Amino acid sequence: MFAQFPMYDHPGVRAETDGFWTAIRDRLRAAGIDAPEALTRGEDLHAEWNSPELLFGQACGLPFRAGLHAKVALIGTLDYGLPEIPPGHYNSVFVARREDPRTRLEAFDGAVLAFNDRHSQSGWGTACAAPVRFRLGPETGSHRDAAIAIAEGRADIAALDTISWRLIKAHTDLATPLKTLGLSGHSPGQALITAFPQHLTALRAAIREGIAALPAPEREALGIRGFLRTSPAEYFTVSNPPSPEAYASAAA
Question: What is the 3-state secondary structure (H, E, C) of 80-145?
Fold first, then answer.
């Protein structure tokens, strides 16, 4: 049995992330569940999400609705307090080099896109839903590396998860050479999942109580405002994007 919490596990909030898991873990143990001591930080998120030993995990909405939903139980999602969107939802911010003379997203038709992962709603799905078409640039592996690709001139634009962007701005100087072009529409937040549906009630209680038990500075650093119980149907309201290969072929 293991737990992972990877989507916003920025080095700048690593200690706070561990503290959040400790608060959840202790409450699960008090409920008679043998929760693991520490979070697993592996390299293959998809293998972890599909593991029958996953007690607690956090997955992007795109892989959840593309097939993961049939293999795990949905616990709910966290509310990160993003402005002007419903609680428990998130969106993306389009960023470009500050020196680029274009100031509106619509002017980036045909621009080179850096994207973090083809399975990412915020980096790939959002870009596919933009009102312009892009030429494909590097698939970088993370929002941080997509920002670096733009700063280095290897791409013109990227869609970055607004929560990841908030962490980038708070803990690095990567935002300095970049500018924002606007926000995408919103979608349900990262799915909290488990391979143990019999523990759903205890997990939801432990998450709520764990958030409440976090000291205010730690809760503020993580940006977590609360927990919402969500349904799989909410994720299915968002369309799945094409693969990068299909996207590129359609533009050819």
Answer: CCCCCCCCCEECEEEEEECCCCCCCHHHHCCCEEEECCCCCHHHHHHHHCCCCCCEEEEECCCHHH
